[in-house]
Amino acid sequence: MDGGNQQRILGYFIEEAKEHLDTLEQGLLNVQESAQDPEMVNEMFRAAHSVKGGAAMLGFSSLQKVAHRLEDCLKILKEHPVKLDRHVESLFLQGYDTLKDLIEQLQGPFGLRDDEADKMVQAAEPTFKELQTYLERLISGGEPASAAPAKSAKGGAKATGQAPENFSAQVTGILKQMLQLFKQSDTPANRQKLQENCHKLAKLAQTVEPWQILVKNASDAIANSQNSFHSLAPVIIKELKQASDQVQQGKESAVKASPALQKLATATPSKGGGKQITITVEPKAAAKAIVKAFDKRQLTQLTKLLVQATRTSS
């Protein structure tokens, strides 16, 4: 296979894999509800299965292994519907994050290097083992190993009055709306809507200072037009979801913005005022990325420029 065809096939695989990641993310963000929807479970299972098959065909063994492990856990849900809890949700999201990180590395300028990929697979293996064991315990009717409530200095359960009892569920609902906005065109109007959602998130736990700081970081990162939706979405959605679970469990002190989010929040806007996007050299995939990032007026202007450039070079 010549280099051009190989690059084109890789571009197709990456674009399809990202679509499958979207399906998995939508289902796993609130897997407690998704598990009660057989069709949603089937969609997630098929998404993991498709990534596994494509990775195997192209020889990406690390991607194949992680997708296979995720597929096996989803197969358990498919064949044995059970009521899940936040711990299962957290484990599923950790496994999903590994799969997403591998695909992002594959798309990066240096590709997916075997040594780094193998380390990521090894690091994720304990999570998948714990997830599979936990699911099997639930199926057998065993008592789930839910996290114990945090203890106060007096030895009693720590009060959770700072956030509503359904805090995590409310956050998940808002994050789903934000995820849909991140998938739309990167426009000032959509950024404004995302910041409005951040304001709603902040109001859910106004007396929890770590949560307020984290949401402020997310809002600042969104406000910076230099940060693309593609770079913002995975960091903000993941961190706010994990933090909401920590707040719900009374572990507010563990809530902290990651270096990645802090970097996005403090990035200096470019003097040119324009955002940047990354596209592959495969024409179809490049066109999809451009159409997603540009509005109609920008596409018209770009088309004219491309026509002029083609005439000049011919």
TrEMBL record:
Coiled coil: none
InterPro entries, sorted: Bact_Chemotaxis_CheA, HPT_dom_sf, Sig_transdc_His_kin_Hpt_dom
Modified residue annotations for Phosphohistidine: H49
Domain HPt: 2-109
UniProt keyword Amino-acid biosynthesis present: no
UniProt keyword list: Phosphoprotein
Keyword Transmembrane helix (UniProt): no
Full protein name: Hpt domain protein
Annotated GO biological process: phosphorelay signal transduction system
